[in-house]
């Protein structure tokens, strides 16, 4: 009976950090450039497989990431770690390539309504713009990953048909030759059965394409979705240090799944995440001071499973009184 | 490849509400008796399988539940719902039986340190006291459930050996004839691989004993643990409306898994929880007014997966401008 997903048996899972981009971009305060660089360096040392360092967007649109060039140029690059940057257009791609991004992350939505509301373009227009970005990346020899928002549902339209997801994946993988695709659960609508089906479908069609799953914990299903994805063959996940990154459609709700929570859980199950949890947690504990508020991470609040608590100060007296009662 | 735990296929899962006891007992304010009764009645109507209504403890020790008799006497009892009450001793058992509890819930810890720190008795003393309670319940024809705290680890001792858990289960099931056992993850130390092993071990030894799993979401593994338990053969879970109920060893951390989050997830996966999620959510939305603060429930914050959001007010203009760009 049952599966072996609960027992990782040393299987490799690649953890990708998105907090420095997806998390910091929604913070109202500007995190100083030196602190951002120190944070990325700490994440590199902790053993993350990929770090989405920043976004090359308009500084007017997202002032929190207006130091993208400097951050990407000045981080210490650890061997084996992929340093990715989000780029929305040709100008952003040129800037990111110039600052030596290992990978450009391109974003559009599987939902027409969400793409229009969020990016002010139709999906067809997004594809056209990102085709141009892709051409520039190819010329520069820089890898491309495509993040498909709302792959598990749209907060305005509801369910997104699987065939719609496949259509857009096919264009990027087959027509543009993207190295990787990220199926994004942008507003936490994914659930395990759906995740397993989508991962199996993707792996069947594009077995050689790097597949990432990007879950939000908006409705408490983040870790369960990660496990359903692993059970269906996925081995690469986005997560955000401290659980940084909100959800604009659910004020007060949790956003991205939390890096240290996912690593903690996967390590207990025997997966090889390549991550030094202690270093990751140290970085997470420094986050509240950086962003000026508490972070959603439950591991920051509660500690690891075996971070034990002392006995009560009067424990010996309690025991003596108990034993005296016979 | 993979399991079918992600696809419930109509399998029955029994959901048991503990918020009215485990949640309310730690609230600093006293929830008026009439409101407690209305809450239990709403939970009955929503289709919970069992409700831990209250605790018959010393009113000095837990003033929040000083109205235990009145609540248990005055609730409307729905056919098929089991109304349970926590009792720590003979006096509590007599009061609970007198107020027509369907089931007495007896608590001790699998960890000696936790039992002493929490109950001021050795485990042997607890067993002796609960044996007397059990005898009274048998005389009265009232069912007994035993909740074994720290079955998945102790916040002071660390791992609790499986054999220790089996020893105490054996005493209650085989020596005292308890109808049910709840393995409690009192401080959120359980993880899926461990859960699957413990559930399989219990079902093998005591296939006819009602087994409940009581998880906390302290480290974000609550739903994953529920699914690992289901995969290993469990079908009965405690949960708390709104996620009420803290964790004294992790201030700020989440306590009990949240009833509406678990029901929402299990229903999406095709399990039959017997619960009307809409009614459950209505009750959860009334909780903040009852307890005077926000509740941890992410479903209260974010709504159900398909509770859609309106398009932006200027959506038509956005689309027209986009299309005008060609």
TrEMBL record, chains A, B:
It comes from the Bacteria. The keyword Lipid metabolism does not apply. CDD domains: DRE_TIM_HMGL (cd07938). GO terms for molecular function: lyase activity. Residues 13-281 form the Pyruvate carboxyltransferase domain. Belongs to the HMG-CoA lyase family. This is Hydroxymethylglutaryl-CoA lyase.
